[in-house]
Amino acid sequence: MTATDPVKAVSLPVPVSIDPSIAPPGTRNFRDAGGIPADQWHADQNGETLVPTHCCFCGVQCGMYLRVDKHGKVFGVEPRNHDINRMRLCPKGINAYQQVNHPDRLTAPLMRRSRDEEFKEASWEEALDFTVSEIRRIQQAYGNDAFGLLGGASLFSEKTYLVGKFARVALKTKHVDYNGRLCMVSAAGANKLAFGIDRAGNPFSDILLTDCLLIAGSNVGECFPVMTQYLWGARDRGASLIVIDPRETAIARTADIHVALKPGTDAAFFNAVLHVIVAEGLTDETYLAAHTTGWEEVKQTVAAYPPARSAEICGIPAEQIVQVARVFAAADKAMAWHARGIEHHSQGVENCLTVINLCVATGNIGKPGAGYGTITGQGNGQGGREHGQKSDLLPGGRSISNPEHRAQICRIWGIEESELPGAGTSMMEMVWQMQRREIRGLIGICNNPFVSLPNYAVVKDGYDTAEFHAQFDFFLSETAANAHVVFPVTTWAEDEGVMANAEARVVKHNKAQEPPAGVRTDTWVICELARRLGAGHHFDFPGSREVFEELRVASAGTVNDYYGITYERLEETGGIAWPCPSTEHPGTPRLFEDGRTCHPDGKIHMQVVEWHPPMDAYTEEYPLSLTTGRTVAHFLSGNQTRRLGALVEQTPRPWVEVHPSHGFRNGDPVRVVTRRGSEVFPALVTEAIRPDTVFIPYHWPVPTAANALTIDALDPRSKIPEYKVCAARVEAADRIDEVPAPPTAPGQEAYPEAQVSRTDPLPPTSPQGRGTAERS
Amino acid sequence: MMGRTIFIDPGRCIGCQACVSACRECDSHRGKSMIHLDYTEPGMSVASLPTVCMHCEDPVAPCAEVCPADAILVTADGVVQQADTTRCIGCANCVNACPFGVPKIDLQAKLQMKCNLCYDRTAYGLAPMCATVCPTGALFYGTLEELQAERPGVQVADSFAFGDVMVSTGVAMVVPADKVQWPVPGGLPVVEVNGVDVR
Q: Is 0.85 exceeded by the ipTM?
């Protein structure tokens, strides 16, 4: 027996030496699994158990076992032979368990009546009562919409469902949104426009079958390391690899074609690629005629993007455009996967649409090894918006503006349609509304906008202006430190629930240990707040299982149909891709195999895209592109990973990556200046970046926060911020001590050798090898 | 020929250090990693390379040969163990002798520590922790046949030239096909000794 999935079209590069029967789901320890004599496995003798679950971090959702000692405490990790990852884990996954019993865990509510006071530990009664009294005060004085709610895409889907329901039914506000807004909403918007469904078209396993893999704006090696096993599997079978990225990343280094285009020029590039494909007669006209609308308009538009024009816009040789077009179009089966690199733009939706146009024009849709996908950054970036947490969506991906959809959900929730608010605004817009005092109170659940939103000065001002702010978290994040009330809640290992990964495969996380004394689940806190707000009868949920049952019903019959997915099935199968309309349905790992999309006419609606420049104009004063991204050791705002010793040792602080042509030496203090402000970073001088581009990883707070410099311009459709490009300049900083030491974190004591020097002003090691290596 | 062992493929390494973190989780040296992650072209490229103990076979493990306390034992299946805690005197002879720069000394404990091929796992049929988790397969555990079945045409080398000294190892390195005929240069770029091509 293995951790099987209903879709197992191909065999993955499994480490063949490992007996797949060693630890099937439900196995409590190695001895039960067979193969290891009970009297010779000392961990087993100590009463260790293994709890099958998944990683809490990115959208790959690797299977793992948490090792639990005889006292019921999580103390380690063991690889799990799950279909998604086949034992593989990245450093974040390996170290994730250390957060569970970390000394920084919040174990009592923190409270203060004004931001001038220090936090004091409070009882749950006090904290809940104060929060409810502030909600009532603000809503009575300024209206229901003066209170907002911000959820998170690291929450289980059950909790995201509760966040949306709580906002509309208990708070009666239209202002609810979530941090998935900062993740893949551009891709979601594009997918919905083109296909009528918001998810990747193919499972990861299809990558192994493709002949040509195009990766656009995704540093797979650092952001989704475990996905590289699929990439290498395709390479082993002879697939070509095309990487579009301004930096020569670990994946780009080994690609057949690496296009290092200037940030913010993706639409011009992809239009030109399609131009060449059309000009050379490489389109699949039969497919286009049968399955698409809008092709003629798209064809006319791309005619205005000859390679020479786009090459100038993108800052690349025109030959590369021709080369990419020929390689992609010549492949029998080609796929395109993209991520934040093309999505974090003021034309993020349009960028994704140009990639979709490329796949569609070559007939690469709905077949094994041919299709498109977006790689979700957050664990539940996909599932987090499917059930009503997003400002414009109701459960099941229903539109909150559609009268029929509203009526359906009101029936399930038992409320009058007149009681259901309309669409609210996006996460960044809510911050602007706080600045304008249109939103005066806010609850944040599982998010850290002080690090993750662009233009930090605006974000801080918005939150400081709010009269009341409560935050749910298990560590005191930079944003929680601004709050009036902080509720200590569970980690992913202390509750059960589901997440949907980048393939839209729903997987189940299991509870590995009881939460520490004083800690409650998010579900309990939301339901308790609802009860105190007089809406308790709508929130009678003892736990995640009961919420999931309501979620299944609420999604039935929609595009995002979860009805056929049950906890029991998830435990048996290792994951089911939605839509799954009945308990007999195997799930839908690959979309459009019958040639029909989710639009009523069953066609793909191709969209015209014209390239326009980024919002922040280049001038003599700001001639460079600043782009941001992740490093492999850290996750998003770093609230979790910046506390784990091994990860801090691996990447202790941010840096600015600059080309040697700027004249800096490795480690020089460099001031990066944008129209939002300036900060000093140590230089990482490398030829692996364009001379007109600089890069800063964004996981750290001020004074080394990339997002103190980035622009809060939004895509007009998806409202995603333009993180990936803004105008900047670099200059030598005066003193080396302008480079601040990284923040201290008690978790570093976990491993003695993981201590990092607090006095060393320069990066001791080079992240990803672009500096001097140091042996520990 | 080599049996079940680790194969290192630098072409696949993405420098993520999952192996380093995984090594820390190994029960025999929990909290300490025995893997080095090296960067081959700093400032030029992101190329990286994990180094584990190569489990030298010929000459028999230089670290074990020079150990004055006979603390480093070699098992029948060729695994060069880390120092026996009851014998090691922390003299660091092994550190100086190792041509690959692998062993580490814990000065406080006066103890040498190094990769022992996860003997606590491999003895029971599991792969070493580093090769189990490696997201890209840059560290692969298995037989040569298993590796080649998965990666058609892959070539490996298990001998290294350090000047005029040859070292054959239990752990093998994936190399470009045109380089497999002679040992992989490990130390100084010497190809001739006393007029003889030592490749």
A: yes
